[in-house]
Amino acid sequence: MMALLTDSMALARWRDSCRQRGGAIGFVPTMGALHAGHLALIQAARQQCAHVVASIFVNPTQFGPNEDFSRYPRTPEADRELLAGVGCDAVYMPEVGEIYPEGFQTAIRVEPLTLDLCGRSRPGHFDGVGVVVTILFNRVRPDVAFFGLKDYQQYQLIRRLVADLAMPLRVVGVPTVREADGLALSSRNRYLDGEARVRATALYRGLLAARQAWRAGERQVAVLERVARDVLERAGIEAVDYVAVREAQTLRVITSFTESMADPVMLMAVRVGGARLIDNMVLSREDGAGLSL
Amino acid sequence: MMALLTDSMALARWRDSCRQRGGAIGFVPTMGALHAGHLALIQAARQQCAHVVASIFVNPTQFGPNEDFSRYPRTPEADRELLAGVGCDAVYMPEVGEIYPEGFQTAIRVEPLTLDLCGRSRPGHFDGVGVVVTILFNRVRPDVAFFGLKDYQQYQLIRRLVADLAMPLRVVGVPTVREADGLALSSRNRYLDGEARVRATALYRGLLAARQAWRAGERQVAVLERVARDVLERAGIEAVDYVAVREAQTLRVITSFTESMADPVMLMAVRVGGARLIDNMVLSREDGAGLSL
Predict the structure, then answer these.
(1) How many domains would you assign to chain B?
(2) C or N terminus of chain A, fewer CB within 10 Å?
(3) A128 lies in the same domain as A195
(4) Is residue A263 one of the residues assigned to a domain?
(5) Interchain pair A138, B165: CB under 8 A
(6) Does any domain span residue A288?
(7) Does A167 lie at the interface with B, CB-CB under 8 angstroms?
(8) Considering the domain boundaries, does residue B135 fall inside one?
């Protein structure tokens, strides 16, 4: 039986019982609307940790005023079935007032890492992510936390935040799970109608084209980005927020490649139908999945 | 023998050995240049906790560009003797590079609490305090942390930060230790020459005068502030940064007193000689010491 923890007291009791039994606690924070990408996080936690807890919390502070907080998909019953089905031990589903108590006024910023890319078109988004993850970490106190590499900038934000604040846990990035045609799984894919769903495959195809060019020896950032953009444009995706090749850990702009250069990651964000979709690929890796830790 | 912990590995070993033996860990973060005020913090920790650790770290990020970081008094040998003398079990003295690793870029802000009073004349100061205390808490992982009520705004900042981020520890405020003539102990008192040292007693006398007025029934904030300012001015202290009566927990401006009103605290900051001095008093409390927790 998966434990349902609706407040921090229940969470604390569950955590204490895990500590008594020994073994690592693995944590997967989510906003619900779970899909196979989330389940891959649970499975990774299951493999590495004796105890696995997920959280479901649609965090209001990471949505902008014109974003989809109110219509963000909420499927708590289905979520719990899915979590139980992959062997999750407990799910923490706090109320907003438990995460943000009265008088709350603390902000966390990781800059410059979060200023560019998605941070540019979603001001405040990563501040909300950083603060809620810090709060959840302090409540759950896991030994290991698992994040999807699909949200690549978020993953690097969490790694930086944990290192900077010396939080006592390890952060693991889990490769993006894709549909058969390459579309990265996302809760926001639910917004796509049939025609938009087809166009959305261009993200992955654009990344593959850029990786192909990288493998063929192309080292000009602008050319690599052009290759991917061409794929998006041919698919009729006109609302391109960004297509960018960056240094894979710091997300710094790359001016020229040298032998000592860290891996380059290509990141993109577009609007298709009513949905904002993101995807990424580490061009220099066979699996494209991102950094091993 | 007091343990000297110069890096986080030694700190972790010390903490693990405390955990094995059981009992609470009490933590007193300091910037060194210790005086009897700090020792009162250690003694409070000693009374409440099985294990007591202090840190000495002159935190560069809480000094402004025109402040006294480079000339801040550093007396590590004397500090260690004093700590050992009051029964401190361990002292953590990290290097700057251990607290702020390469690529560090995380900021913590608690606003509006830190925008006014000392925050107004020391921009960035409380951001530096908040981030270093968070890092130290995550490294030391104490059960209880002790802060002097002399730095009253800092104390409320830490309480807010710990509550907001759900940090798993308790924050205790320890009453200000004063010289026989009432001057609050401060490492910066070392900057005072004989004449400035005499004038500096006006801070406490001003607070006492305001409390006297409060007890006599005065409830107009402006009048209470005027009473204290008059004492400062009569002592020849012209460089008054602020004299303010505020709500004692949130430090919000008080517009009118009502029966349900929380306690009022008077806070002041002045320049005397080469030193910036602060002091405060909870006007409604007999000991004036601040809030019990």
Answers:
(1) 2
(2) N
(3) no
(4) yes
(5) yes
(6) no
(7) yes
(8) yes
pLDDT tens digits for range A152-209: 999 999 999 999 999 999 999 999 999 999 999 998 998 999 999 999 999 999 999 9
Same domain, A67 and A129: yes
Reply yes or no on whether A51 is catalytic.
no
Contacts of B135 in chain A (CB under 8 A): 164-166
Q: Which domain holds residue B114?
A: 3-174
Q: Which residues of A touch B103 (CB under 8 A)?
A: 160, 163, 250
Closest to A219 in 3D by CA, of A249, A261, A280, A252: A261
Q: What percent of chain A has pLDDT above 90?
A: 88
Residue B35, both tokens = 């005086």
* CA-closest candidate to residue A148, choices A267, A29, A275: A29
CATH value at residue A11 = 3.40.50.620
DSSP letter, residue B170: E
Question: Per-residue pLDDT tens for B158-217?
Answer: 999 999 999 999 999 999 999 999 999 998 998 999 999 999 999 999 999 999 999 999
Q: Are residues A117 and A261 in the same domain?
A: no
One domain for residues A92 and A222: no
Mean pLDDT of the region B215-224: 95
B103 vs A: CB within 8 A: yes
Per residue, what are the HEC states of A126-167? HHHHHHHHHHHHHHHCCCEEEEECCCHHHHHHHHHHHHHCCC
Preferred mutation among A108, A133, A157, A247 to probe B, highest tally of B CBs within 10 A: A108
pLDDT tens sequence across A90-143: 999 999 999 999 999 999 999 999 999 999 999 999 999 999 999 999 999 999
Question: Residue A56: inside a domain, yes or no?
Answer: yes
Average predicted confidence (pLDDT) for chain B = 94
Does residue B205 contact residue B232 with C-beta atoms inside 8 Å? Answer: no
Q: A14, A3 in Cβ contact below 8 A? A: yes
Exposure of A236 in the CB half-sphere (CA atoms within 13 A): 8
CB contact under 8 A, A139 and B103: no
Which residues is A90 bridged to in the sheet?
Answer: A3, A53
Q: Do B141 and A106 touch (CB under 8 A)?
A: no
pLDDT of A238-271, one tens digit each? 899 999 999 999 999 998 777 556 799 999 999 9
